[in-house]
Predict the 3D structure of the following.
Amino acid sequence: MLERNDRRSRPRWLRIPFQSRTQDVRQVRVGATPAAEPCWLVPFVFACLFLICLLPLVSLAKAGFAGLVSGRSIGVLSEPATFAAIRNTLLTATGGMVVSVVIGALFAFAVALTDVRGKLALSFAFMLPMMIPPQVTALAWVEMTGPASPLLKTLGIAPPLGSPQPLYSLAGISLLLGVQHAPLVFLALKAGLSASPRDGVEAARLAGATPFRVISDIVAPLSLPGLIAGAAIAFVSGVGNFGIPAILGIPAGIEVLPTLIYTRLASFGAGTFGEIALLSSLIAVIAAAGLILQQRALSGRDYRIIGLAGANAAFTLGRYRPVVELALVAILFFVLAAPLAALVASSLVPAYGVPLNLQTVSLRAYEEILFRQAMTLKALGNSMFLASTAAIGLLAVSVPAAYLMTRRKGWLSNTLGILIEIPYALPGIVLAVAFILTFAAPLPLLNVSLYGTIWIILIAYFSSFLAVSLKPVMSAFLQMDPSLEEAARLAGAGFLRRMRDVILPLVAPAAGAAIILVFLIAANELTVSALLWSAGTQTLGVAIFNLDDSGSSDLAAALSVLVVVMVVLLMAALEALAKYLPEGVLPWRN
């Protein structure tokens, strides 16, 4: 009875009577069962990737080459402003990388190798700066420092009026780039530290080796790949960062390559497209050089681990544990809590520089943002539309792409992976320029131009965040037993039926995580939309940047606080769904 009821509860195509087994086998032999995948699947995936990933990069390469050949744009390479921007880009990216390595390595060692308490909470809080938009990070730090800081005025420790803002400098840009990208080093290094051989560490300690000797001789060499990879990612991210150099550098007259491209595009003239194509190529070359140096640093080294992996809590801190925990909390306070507190204080005062007290506290900025400012309401609507459409729409590409990459190994999987990863690895400013060059002219046959519309931003988001959407879905496919789909296929279910009844229910939690992750990043994006927006298509990131640039610091702070609240709520929602998600989807739980 139980067997009969269970059989009835299955989908019809899984109800395979025992007596029909011979018939089913005969049908399989003569090819009656559906193919593993339809003939249209591979062309569909490649067509999508060509349009949103490859075509813009081809347009960028063509424009840069044409500018070099014609000589109309090559003069930009010899201008003093270009040399200064290259120098500033290298200095700030390198300085930010150093800060990221110091902070990220400290947290990674403490969380992965010691017995500190509250590791999940520490990891969650440490990941916040990476999830918060860079322009919000810069604005929060500006509100925390300087003579006009409302928080410092309230505490009575503000510098004298007329004192310079210390963050408006190359050192200030480097510091904030380091804070923004330290979680990247943390993630890369933590994975390597977690794979350290537990038995090797225990053997060394039993032999009398001091903790310092164990770290220097065993842990450090094995964690070197993660450290180098994290440093390279932090450097490349610093090269392409627009929000922090824009907030801190433009007021001080400090230009890096992304802000130089922004100002060149704003002052549109003859040969502008060729010039920004060459400048974007410089950013791509610098980013590629950083990744090549990473490969060279790791080449010729063998990092295979023999023994039991997972050196969790390899070092017991004993009476020093409260001291280490206090140090970690202090770092989080200075890089996260204090700047956000300053941001909240600035949003509650009527003007920048007014101390916060019972007489000056006001919610006027929030009322203005939410109910009166048409520009911010429009930006909020645009960001919600772009983020939600990109998050849901990308599943139409990421699910079939993940299916092909897991079912077909070899050149097909590698080619798909390269096409998807290249736009994500490129700095956002380069990707934006590529889309401008691709869609500036009217589309063939349709005679409609996407440039200056919200649709060009949406397509750029598809390209930029496809890799983000793919990762959770790919993890779910890798953890799925292929025999489930194979049983459905042998029972006569077609591809779409298998996708609906077998595959999609199993990858649904990961797909939900992909939607939230893409929405979280896209809703706060600035670098891509800074070059692609026009009147009526501004996003939240652009609105914050424009409000701060126009002197409305209280409105910019209020909008930034709302963005941070949204980020925290979305991350909390992901954390609540953690038990339903494949391992490795949530970065703070990785």
